[in-house]
Task: structure prediction
Amino acid sequence: MDARKIGILVTRPQPQAQPLIDGLAQLGLAVWHLPLIRIQTVPPSPMPAWTGFDGALFSSAHAVQAARETLPPEFWHWLASVPVGVVGTATATSLRQNGIQPVLVPGVHSAQGLSAELLAQPNKLGKKILHLCGNLTPAAFFLPLTQVGIFISPCVLYRTSTIHYPKADWNTVCQQVDWLTFASGSAVQAFVENAGTGRHKKVAFCLGKHTQQTAQAVGFGNTVLASENSNAGLLASVADYWVKLD
Result:
C-alpha cells in the first residue's frame, strides 16, 4: 500500500491538532482535519474556596489554561504552596509554563491512572483535594479514594460539546480516510454522533487507554494505543503501524 494513498483524519481541535497534522503530513499521509469537539472555558460558579483544600489536581492542559483565564492571582499564589497532581505529561508541561511544579504525574496518563497513584500514595496530595477539570471528566475513577479518606471536589472550568457536520460533508471526508486519530473518549463519542453506531472498519489510533476502551466499546475492531499520552506518542504509533504494514 502506498502511504500517499492513505488518508488519516485528525479529530482534535486547534491549536492542539497542528503539531499532529504537520507530523502526519511529513510521513506522506493525506491528512484531513475535522475537529469533533468544541472546548469552551466557563467561569466556575461558585468560585471555589481553594484555601480549604490540601492540594489540587488538573485533569488536562485545557484545565490549566482555563484556570489561567478564570481564576484570580490569589489562586495561583495558593497553588504554589500546595502539592499538585496532573493527569499526564502535557498537563505537567502546561503547569510548569505557569510556574507550578507538579509533584505527581502518574505512569498511566489517565484519570484512572491518577486515581491508582493516589491509592498507592494516599498522603501525596493530602486528604481534601480540589480537582480542576471539564464537565466530562470521569469522576467515577476517583470514587475508590474515599475508602482511604481522600475526597475530591470537582471545579468545572471548561465544557466539551460535539460538533455536528452535515451528512454530505461528513460522508465525503469519511470516504477519503482509512485511519482516524482520537485524543479523548469524548471525541470517540462525537464520532459516533456524526457517523452512527455499528462496527467501524477504519483503524483508530487512540491517545490513552480510556480513549481506546471507548473506541472498542462503540465498535472499532482495530485500535492502536499511542506509545505515550501526547501528540508525539500518536505520531510514533502511526509511523510504527505503517512500517509493520509495509
In short: Residues 167 and 195 are 9 Å apart (CA to CA). Strands lie at 7-10, 30-33, 37-41, 55-58, 84-86, 128-134, 151-162, 179-182, 203-206, 223-225.
